[in-house]
Amino acid sequence: MIARTDACPADETGVLRLGNATGLTCRECGNTVPLGPFYACDQCFGPLEVGYDFPRLTRADIEAGPKNIWRYAALLPVPQDIASRPTTEPGYTRLIRADGLAAELGMRRLWIKDDSGNPTHSFKDRVVAVALAAATEMGFKVLACPSTGNLANAVAAAAARAGIRSVVMVPANLEEQKILTTAVYGGTFVTVDGNYDDVNRLASELAGEHEDWAFVNVNVRPYYAEGSKTLGFEIAEQLGWRLPDQIVVPVASGAQLVKIDKGFTELTELGLVDGKPWKVFGAQASGCAPVSDAFAKGWDVVRPVKPDTIAKSLAIGNPADGPYVLDVVRRTGGAVADVSDAEVVDSMRLLARSQGVFGETAGGVTVGVLRKLLADGQLDPDAETVIINSGDGLKTLDAVASSVTVPAAIKPTIEEFEQFHG
Amino acid sequence: MIARTDACPADETGVLRLGNATGLTCRECGNTVPLGPFYACDQCFGPLEVGYDFPRLTRADIEAGPKNIWRYAALLPVPQDIASRPTTEPGYTRLIRADGLAAELGMRRLWIKDDSGNPTHSFKDRVVAVALAAATEMGFKVLACPSTGNLANAVAAAAARAGIRSVVMVPANLEEQKILTTAVYGGTFVTVDGNYDDVNRLASELAGEHEDWAFVNVNVRPYYAEGSKTLGFEIAEQLGWRLPDQIVVPVASGAQLVKIDKGFTELTELGLVDGKPWKVFGAQASGCAPVSDAFAKGWDVVRPVKPDTIAKSLAIGNPADGPYVLDVVRRTGGAVADVSDAEVVDSMRLLARSQGVFGETAGGVTVGVLRKLLADGQLDPDAETVIINSGDGLKTLDAVASSVTVPAAIKPTIEEFEQFHG
């Protein structure tokens, strides 16, 4: 395993328990290792994934749980008493029926899973909560990450809530909004003179130096990524324990898409939903579309790109789960597509105007790709469809600032109002 | 009644039904009128309040409802099928146990009701959803409001979601953040050359001119205000169907505080919680503290002030429910207090640091007053206490911008990191 076991006191005594998780399995060669702070296979360097031995579980068991992701604790690599510990309690965000948007797009049944309702207003609260729970059990003392924004907010907030130290590293040229909303939580905050790739590399080096630091998206990534399954669980439960026909998911590292699909599969295997086919679609911005590009060209590998898009939360040029996204999309009969920054902004405004949901740029990417895939016939307008809004427009205000026009001020009189109102 | 009945087609036919609501009663003289678009008593000009004939209701009935305010539809003036209509689905926000903050303040059991998780990130989504539901039944065609920010966001989003027109009016000098986050929803957006009082006066005049416009906080205010009861309902349910000993609530118009108390009373009368005493405390910023001032001086009336505080969402100099706040607070053995802007900022940072909750300035006011009332012995540190965070720090970033220090950037090397990290 590529990690030192001395970082993991629980593992030393041989009693590390993370709910129903049984070990880590390599996604490439199938080699299995015990639970611990490992993230790459010691046989082939492939990424590790959490495996489980699930108990019999009923819908009622889940419905009796708290109204957050811990209702699915039995399906996550976390201690079973996690709901009683100080976490940010993310999840169970609203799934709203989007008849207004559906009508504009000529669709029959469309839903929006709106993850901007999470504690720091992005889906990152889910994955960080699971990473923190697992990391604490493994004896880590510090929660850390490299980030361009949403993850920084989520890590700093979750650590403050749990009363442990955080170390968050971001590129120094980040927008002031995202810097303030991280620094306010009072952890160690490091701005780095470089781009996200530089920060990410530094984080990987530091993970090797500081044995008791859990970098959520580096050395505890297998646990972290499992958090995104809860998006799939919630969608199914909120639809009345049913799977949709189609789902459109934004693709950054690609883990969210892959884990939603895994969530659907687990629910089916557990008999919590009826088995049926579903199609998974991935959405990227054209300024950072390595997975979309690979899909279009029929490749099995993803060629890294240098990102240049306003959708900064999706701007990962070398997505770790890119090949797995291609697998899922091809297996289910879906697709990956991308849209321009202009279409992203236009789609953010369409979503706000038609549904009252102000999503971040990533939400605009998803709606834009939804339109594109409908237009070229790859998405069925008559099939029940769910789209993910993974973050909040409040954090990416600059994207719409130039296109939303604000009228000139009027004097506070009925006459001026009526003239304005015409 | 001060309102024209010809604005209300449903009322003309005599069949207006809003769930279990039975009529409107004057809070001053007790005069009762039928349900309709009325807000002031035709006998004494006192404010009207919704009355009900509640059915027998069990905890299980409520728990079987949706995970939003409509689980309490039977206790609100809304159609009973409201959950199946296109609303923003606000509410059921997290109630988190705040052990970290409690420890810092020497308290035993403290909870935060965090309403920043609502669709547009403030408690206004609750009141607007109820106002819109009632207004639609009364035949109004447009949802409107004067606002300084949070209400504007909530009205514009709720109207977009429901597919009806909105007219939102704000002072022209509002921060760009709040302007963009309203204008993006695509309703009619009016900026007014004047302060909030000017905008408010214009709204009252327009409510008389446009018969089919529902100004949520003017001509449908009795329904709107009922939405805040859901904060009280949720707190009790989330505590396991129990009432807290003490609650601290920010005071703008004062309606939120009064309605939380009403919510506790209704739950007790319905037998949904065991009867017990509770104390209600109000929190204001010293730059706009007319209710705190009246409380300190033992007055029954509230003398209007000209607001000057960074807590803009609480900056109502002539609070409509001020006298009722005094009633509730004195009846329950609570108090009203106020804190300076510097204490507001310090308390916002304390809340973020100790709990991972980044509240807006109003949240800072509430935490600041909590500290103050503990320090002077008016609040019992050993009694179970709930505080309300009514909005989101993302919308009031300027308040913390000057006090949160961001370190200088480092080069992306382990050496520079270790030197920085020291």
UniProtKB/TrEMBL annotation, chains A, B:
One of its GO terms (biological process) is L-threonine catabolic process. Residues 89-391 form the Tryptophan synthase beta chain-like PALP domain. Its EC number is 4.2.3.1. The modification N6-(pyridoxal phosphate)lysine is found at residue 124. Keywords: Lyase, Pyridoxal phosphate. Its cofactor is pyridoxal 5'-phosphate. GO terms for molecular function: L-serine ammonia-lyase activity; threonine deaminase activity; threonine synthase activity. Belongs to the threonine synthase family. NCBIfam families: thrC. PANTHER family: L-THREONINE DEHYDRATASE CATABOLIC TDCB, THREONINE DEHYDRATASE, MITOCHONDRIAL-RELATED. This is Threonine synthase.
